[in-house]
Design brief:
There is one protein chain. The chain has 3 domains: about 50 residues, no CATH class; about 55 residues, 2,3-Dihydroxybiphenyl 1,2-Dioxygenase, domain 1; about 60 residues, 2,3-Dihydroxybiphenyl 1,2-Dioxygenase, domain 1. The protein is built from 3 helices and 10 strands. The strands form 3 sheets. It has a 4-stranded mixed β-sheet with strand order 3-6-5-4, covered by helices on one side. The protein has a 4-stranded mixed β-sheet with strand order 7-10-9-8, with helices on one face. Strand 9 and strand 10 form a beta hairpin.
């Protein structure tokens, strides 16, 4: 087997990584380095953070890619943007990206998932209420019913075919994209 090119210190340096970082062997491709420590100084949110456009990608391990693909396409209107093989599919809502990867031997019956939930924001409260009615009418598993939270948001939770919890949430403080 050829050597892993990312293990080369020269490539790591050229990628901007500092000394002390190494590849984790338990998760190929993941870097490990000095532990992150919170800064004692007050940060300016606009300049002292990693800048992103928000969390737009989630990757899920699923037992059956076709079943999960149908669920996310039929329930959330996502579309397949790429399916390189039967074990992997990439879906999009236009602003979000969801990767589905088949996990051989995934046991969803009675298993404990380490992922708490994923979420979809809904622009208007009345749309969230219609979505809840739709989920009930279509026999989706309701994990937590529609309710208003103390912070002013409203949401409900459903389960996908692998038991992954999906929250649908309306936050009046979020700007509509």
């Amino acid at each position: 087997m050829p050597p892993d090119p990312f293990r080369s210190a020269g490539l790591l340096r050229s990628a901007g990584l500092r000394a002390g970082y190494r590849l984790r062997t338990d998760f190929p491709g993941r870097m490990e380095g000095p532990a992150w420590k919170p800064s004692s100084k007050k940060t300016d949110r606009e300049t002292d953070v990693i800048e992103t456009q928000g969390m737009r990608h989630v990757a899920l391990r699923v037992a059956d890619v076709e079943r999960s693909k149908r669920f996310y396409c039929e329930v959330f209107g996502m579309r397949v943007v790429w399916q390189p093989d039967p074990d992997n599919a990439y879906l999009s809502s236009g602003s979000d990206n969801l990767a589905l990867h088949r996990e051989a031997g995934l046991n969803v019956a009675g298993g404990v998932q380490t992922l708490d939930h994923i979420g979809f924001f809904v622009a208007q409260l009345d749309q969230l209420e219609r979505n809840f009615a739709w989920a009930e009418q279509h026999g989706l598993e309701i994990v937590r019913p529609l309710r208003r939270h103390r912070d002013g948001t409203s949401s409900f939770y459903i389960a996908d075919p692998d038991g992954i919890v999906v929250q649908l949430i309306h936050d009046p403080a979020m700007r509509v994209v």
